[in-house]
Design brief:
Length: 356
C-alpha cells in the first residue's frame, strides 16, 4: 500500500502498527464520542456539532514521508484519532473543556490553547486543543474545541489561502484579516447578548415572583414566567365546579398574542383583567356548560372567557371576538359564526349590565 511512498523500514513499521491497531482506534472513537455526547447532554449543553475522524492510511503515510524521523512509534503521533466539538458560544468552549478534563487524562505539555494567540489573522485558529488519553488504550488522541464562527472561518480561510497553491496578494490578505476581526467581534457579541438575556430573564422572574407585575412588559419570556404562577387556576377551578369537571391542562402560550392584540402592555394589565372580569368569565362558562354533562374542561377556558368578557364590556363586539378567535384558531370565516354565537349568548348575562 505504500509502494508509491519513499518510506524507510522504521516508517513502514509505524504504518504496520497503525494497520494492526485500526480496529481498536475505531472502538475508542465510538467510546469517546458516546462519553462526550452523554456528558454534554447531562449538562444541558447544546453544541453545533461533535465530529470525529481516524487518520486515513495515505494521510499517515504522507506525514511519515515528510517527517517520520520525529516519531519513534505510533504512540508518538497524537492525531491518529481526532475529535472536534463546535459550540455556538465562546463561553461554552470553556464548559466543554471542563467536561473533557473530567472525562479524560489531559496531556498538558502537548495541549495548546490557541485562543491566547493575538495576531489579527488568527481568529479561525483560536481553537482549544487537548491531547487526551483513556485507561487501557496506549495511544493519545486530540480533541479540538472551537465556536461555530471560528470553525466556519477556518474552513473558508483554508480553502482560499492554502488549497489553491497560489500565494495570496497582500490586499486580499488584509481584507481577510479585517473579516476575521469582524467575526471575532460577532462571536463576542453573541456571548454578551446571551449573558444579558439570561440576566434579563432572572430579573423578570424575580419581579414576577415578587408580584411587581406592573413593572413587567409582556413578551414571551415574561408571559411564560407569569403562567408558572397559575394566574387562571382559581377561575378554572370555579368553572370546573359547575359540573364537577376535571381540568385538562393545555398550552396557554397562544394567549400571549391575544393579550397583546387587546392592547395590554404589562403583566399587571393581565392581572387586572383576572381581578375585574373573572365574574363575567364565570357567567359565560355557566351559560356554555351549565346545562351539559361535560365532565372535562380545558385549562384554556379561563383565559378565553376572560378575553371574551373584556372584549364585550369594552365595545369590541363581533369584530373583537373574531379577531381573538382568528389569533387562536387561524383566520377563518367560521370564527365570525362563533363570534355571533358568543354575542348572542352573552348579551343577557348579568355582567353585561353591571360595572364589570
Amino acid at each position: 500500500m505504500s509502494s508509491n511512498r519513499h518510506l524507510d523500514p522504521h516508517c513502514e513499521a509505524i504504518l504496520e502498527e497503525y494497520r494492526d491497531n485500526l480496529p481498536r482506534f475505531k472502538e475508542v472513537e465510538v467510546q469517546v464520542r458516546d462519553m462526550l455526547k452523554r456528558t454534554l447532554s447531562e449538562a444541558g449543553l447544546l453544541v453545533a456539532a461533535l465530529e470525529s475522524r481516524i487518520k486515513e492510511y495515505d494521510s499517515l503515510a504522507g506525514k511519515l514521508e515528510l517527517k517520520g524521523n520525529k516519531y519513534s512509534t505510533l504512540a508518538d503521533l497524537t492525531d491518529i484519532l481526532g475529535l472536534r466539538i463546535i459550540t455556538f458560544y465562546i463561553d461554552d468552549v470553556d464548559i466543554v473543556a471542563s467536561a473533557v478534563e473530567r472525562l479524560f487524562t489531559v496531556d498538558w505539555d502537548n495541549s495548546v490553547d490557541k485562543r491566547k494567540i493575538h495576531e489579527i489573522d488568527s481568529f479561525g485558529y483560536l481553537s482549544l486543543h487537548y491531547i487526551c488519553s483513556i485507561p487501557g488504550f496506549p495511544y493519545r488522541f486530540e480533541i479540538q474545541m472551537r465556536t461555530l464562527l471560528q470553525h466556519a472561518w477556518a474552513n473558508m480561510n483554508h480553502d482560499t489561502g492554502y488549497k489553491s497553491g497560489v500565494e495570496i496578494p497582500k490586499g486580499y490578505m488584509r481584507n481577510m484579516s479585517r473579516l476575521a476581526g469582524m467575526l471575532e467581534l460577532v462571536d463576542d457579541e453573541f456571548s454578551k447578548i446571551r449573558i444579558e438575556l439570561t440576566d434579563y430573564r432572572r430579573r423578570v422572574q424575580a419581579l414576577v415572583k415578587s408580584g411587581n407585575l406592573d413593572e413587567v412588559s409582556i413578551d414571551g419570556d415574561t408571559f411564560r414566567s407569569y403562567l408558572e404562577l397559575g394566574p387562571f387556576g382559581q377561575l378554572n377551578k370555579r368553572i370546573a365546579s359547575i359540573n364537577q369537571a376535571e381540568i385538562q391542562e393545555v398550552p396557554l402560550m397562544p394567549y400571549l398574542a391575544v393579550f397583546k392584540g387587546m392592547g395590554l402592555k404589562t403583566l399587571g394589565d393581565i392581572a387586572s383583567i383576572v381581578r375585574n372580569y373573572s365574574e363575567g368569565a364565570y357567567q359565560i362558562a355557566c351559560y356554555q356548560i351549565g346545562l351539559t354533562d361535560l365532565d372535562i374542561i380545558a385549562s384554556s377556558i379561563g383565559p378565553q372567557n376572560l378575553c371574551i368578557a373584556y372584549i364585550l364590556k369594552n365595545g369590541g363586539g363581533k369584530a373583537g371576538l373574531k379577531y381573538m378567535f382568528d389569533l387562536l384558531n387561524g383566520e377563518s370565516e367560521s370564527n365570525a359564526t362563533i363570534a355571533d354565537m358568543m354575542l348572542e349568548q352573552a348579551k343577557d348575562l348579568p355582567f353585561m349590565n353591571t360595572g364589570n
